[in-house]
């Protein structure tokens, strides 16, 4: 099934469409509740006013898709690609969006009540008048986000970065800002009942404040300029996460996939890395260094094309790439990374 298939008003509840190629398909007004669309190619699809309750979109590609008015209540959207997607009037209540890149998207007025946005990248995202009551924003990036008049009652902002966010009129009753970086760049300090700021009671709390993440891109014209999605160096402070080298093992079958396709192996490797980063409370924007191991350096261009989808070239991590004589299970590529949160 590929290329402009028409599923308008179809009832596909519970259907298994995992790994299907459905680019450009029309699912407008379709019913896909509890369907399995994990790892599915859904770029340029129309899901306007579709019912997608509890649907599994894990690792699906929804770039440039139209989701206007869709109901995604409780949907699994971890590691989904949503670049340039239209999410106007979408219902994402209780949806799972752990580690998803939502930077720069328009989510104004969207219902995200009780959603899981932990470690999500919401840099520059428009959340004006959005509903985020009881939403989990732990370790998410909300730098330069528009939160004006957004309802954030009882939201979890633990270690969230709100640097330069627009917050006029936001509703934050009973929200938890523990160790959050506030819009002014300062670490949040709660007030006691007498109005005085709480002071750190233990060296551990003090240490947490010292290790809040900072990241700086290092560039110099006295060394060769980057020729791909990486930077010369990254200076970072915070909690360091060392992610072991990942190869193209699909955990559903516990075996190597795409034995002759280095691009698809790279996609699986990046999915595995992404899952580990998400579990650690990190996302791709937290990665400061990667190492790419290739069986054949002639595969570099194909690997680089996939790799580049995960990083903005201006802020990409430092990287090394080497050819080795043999990799575990005779795979074509292995990648490890270091992240700081």
Describe the structure in your own words:
By secondary structure, this protein is mainly β. It has a domain at 214-340: 2-Layer Sandwich (60s Ribosomal Protein L30, Chain: A). The protein has three helices and eight strands, in the order αβββββαβαββ. The protein has helices at 203-210, 262-279, 300-307; strands at 214-218, 233-237, 240-246, 249-250, 255-256, 287-294, 318-323, 333-340. A four-stranded mixed beta sheet has the order 3-8-6-7. The longest helix has 18 residues, at 262-279. The chain is globular, with a radius of gyration of 21 Å. The relative contact order is 0.09. Residues 192-211 have low confidence and may be disordered.
Brief characterization of the structure:
This protein has 341 residues and is mainly β. Helices cover 10% and strands 13% of the residues. It is built from three helices and eight strands, in the order αβββββαβαββ.
Helices and strands in order, then pairings?
Elements (H helix, E strand, L loop, with lengths): L202 H8 L3 E5 L14 E5 L2 E7 L2 E2 L4 E2 L5 H18 L7 E8 L5 H8 L10 E6 L9 E8 L1
Parallel strand pairs: 6-7
Antiparallel strand pairs: 1-2, 3-8, 4-5, 6-8
Helix pairs in contact: 2-3
